[in-house]
Amino acid sequence: MSIVSTSNTRDRILDALQDILISDGYSSVTLELVARTAEVSKGGLLYHFPSKASMMVGLMERVRALAEEEFREAVVSEEGVVRYFLRTSLPQTSAEGELYWAVIAALRSKEDIPPEAGILVKELFDRWGDLLHAELTDPVLAETIRLAGDGMYMSSIAGLGRPDPVLTQQVVDRLAEASDRVRRER
Amino acid sequence: MSIVSTSNTRDRILDALQDILISDGYSSVTLELVARTAEVSKGGLLYHFPSKASMMVGLMERVRALAEEEFREAVVSEEGVVRYFLRTSLPQTSAEGELYWAVIAALRSKEDIPPEAGILVKELFDRWGDLLHAELTDPVLAETIRLAGDGMYMSSIAGLGRPDPVLTQQVVDRLAEASDRVRRER
DNA sequence: GACACTGTACCGGCTGGACGGTACTGTACC
DNA sequence: GGTACAGTACCGTCCAGCCGGTACAGTGTC
To answer: Residues A60-85: what's their mean pLDDT?
Structure first.
């Protein structure tokens, strides 16, 4: 079987899984709920994914494909990696970001999530770090940007902190401007 | 292992709960495991806490007491709020930090954790934000520090990013130095 | 072009185990 | 004799994975 399936049902199942993960968290993910959301029977779901774990892995594989496209886009973009990263760190602008955190939260809770899923998400985060460090000559600033970006995800998704978009945007702007002074030539 | 050694059974139960939360996550918390870890029978546990939820609330109340002490200490400390916050954001130095994240992860996963627990943790995070903003005349820097601190917790606890303590320390130092230039008088 | 057969896609009921909570009885100590 | 447990048996619920089906579209064969 090829990685890209022609089956529409398979993608519908992954869509359902993703929606539930984002809105309700991993602990709400049951085979029955995913099946119902995807308008498939439980048996039909298990035909495509023989276990809950394999379903998660299927989703992560799809996520990886999207993420790699995003990395390529960030590198060649006009705005540069820093602005791209910080922009997509604002959760309003990124549905995938929410998905990552849902997986991380599930990992932290040691829910019986397949290791591959965790490893993949970690790789994606590391990749952003690598790109930031490659873009800037100042590793301390690069790391600060990485940490602040992670904090932004966190803050809003966990519902922490005051939701002050203006202030957050000012942080983004200041970090972006600082990065302009230490950007490596392409 | 427990942070505080006590002869009191109630505290022993909360210690066990905390240990399990930190090391294995909320989904691993079962009445039986907590009881076994605390070397209490299940009946004994339910004598002190009539439900799993009330046990969590009990832990959160104890956490709040410790946190409030920490806030007072941070404000009157020689190093100031910024350094205190960033220092305790490095998870190696803070067991409570890990506990907060365990609760946040559980919240994100929508596990049937009592609402009070989530509200309390959110309040504690907000409080740090308030203290940072009160300490500095530059709200953008205060917010950057808050975000970076949250990112540090995240990064290491979720196992994200390269574990580069030297680089992380440099970030801390730079933010702390920057804060020295905009510190409000006491 | 009717027949036999095969693989794909999907349905839905069932079971076995885990877990929260209940409900007792027993016991040691003050 | 009340407090602080220990010990255990049990109930209801939830859920993952399994299994026995169904429908149907090919595909070769004569």
So the answer is: 93
Tell me how far CA of residue A141 lies from CA of A63, B48, B117, in angstroms. 28, 50, 35
Q: What is the DSSP string of A14-65?
A: HHHHHHHHHHH-GGG--HHHHHHHTT--HHHHHHH-SSHHHHHHHHHHHHHH
Tokens of B82: 């910024």
**What fold is seen in the domain A8-180?**
Tetracycline Repressor; domain 2 (1.10.357)
State mean pLDDT over A149-162. 76
Tokens 């709040």 belong to: B64
CA B1 – CA B20 distance, rounded (Å): 10
Tell me the CA–C1' distance in angstroms for B16 and C29. Answer: 25
Query: In the structure, how far is the CA atom of residue A32 from the C1' atom of nucleotide C14, in angstroms?
Result: 15
For A86-143, how does the pLDDT look when each residue is reduced to its tens digit (9 = 90+)? 998 886 656 777 788 788 888 878 788 888 888 888 888 889 999 999 999 999 999 9
Test B105 with A109 for CB contact under 8 angstroms: yes
Q: Domain B1-50: what homologous superfamily? A: Homeodomain-like (1.10.10.60)
Is the CB of A31 less than 7 A from some atom of nucleic acid strand C? Answer: no
Give bridge partners of residue A183 from the DSSP assignment.
A136
Distance, CA of A1 to CA of A47 (rounded, Å): 13
With CA of B33 and C1' of each nucleotide, the nearest comes out as C19
SS3 content of chain B, % helix, strand, coil (to 5): 75, 0, 25
In whole angstroms, what separates CA B59 from the centre of its chain? 12
CB contact under 8 A, B143 and A170: yes
Mean pLDDT of chain B: 87
Question: What are the residues whose beta carbons fall under 8 Å from the beta carbon of A171, sequence distance 6 or more?
Answer: A148, B140, B143, B144, B147
Give B166's contacts in chain A (Cβ within 8 Å). Answer: none
Q: What is the spatial distance between Cα B150 and Cα B100, in angstroms, rounded to a whole number?
A: 11
Task: Count CA within 13 A, CB hemisphere, residue B180.
Answer: 8
Provide the residue ranges of all domains of chain A, joining segments of one domain with +: 8-180
Nearest by CB to B129, which of A101, A154, A161? A161
C-beta of residue B58 within 8 angstroms of C-beta of residue B114: no
pLDDT above 60: residue B4: no
**CA pair distance A40, A52, nearest whole angstrom:** 15
